[in-house]
Amino acid sequence: MDCLFCKIINREIPADIVYEDEHVLAFNDINPQAPTHMLIIPKTHIATLNDLEEADLALVGRLQYTAAKLAKEAGFAEEGYRVLMNCNEKGGQTVYHIHMHLMGGRRFTWPAG
């Protein structure tokens, strides 16, 4: 498989890893859009949100829980933060392995920016 995130999980490509458990890996984004910008990924390869199955519900919940935990640890949970998932090309997805962006440390506007 030629998946960038799977290669990071398998330690074939280096990343600035900030969290890991048996199901989830989180690392700092190499092109941050905020003072803190982490990517949270499942260790199971799922290409897009459209590929989720009911059996994946606990895994997606673990991604959300990890985002909240990391926001608290980073010190911006109370001020606020952004959690974002993109799906497919028009949704802004560039790596086809589901992932959650956790961004904090600045004020965010809507639409995303």
UniProtKB/TrEMBL annotation:
Q: Which Pfam families match?
A: HIT
Domain HIT, residue spans: 4-113
**Protein origin, superkingdom:** Bacteria
Give GO terms: molecular function aspect only.
catalytic activity
Catalytic residues identified in the record = H99
Q: Where is this motif: Histidine triad motif?
A: 97-101
Instruction: Indicate what this protein is called per its UniProt record.
Output: Histidine triad nucleotide-binding protein
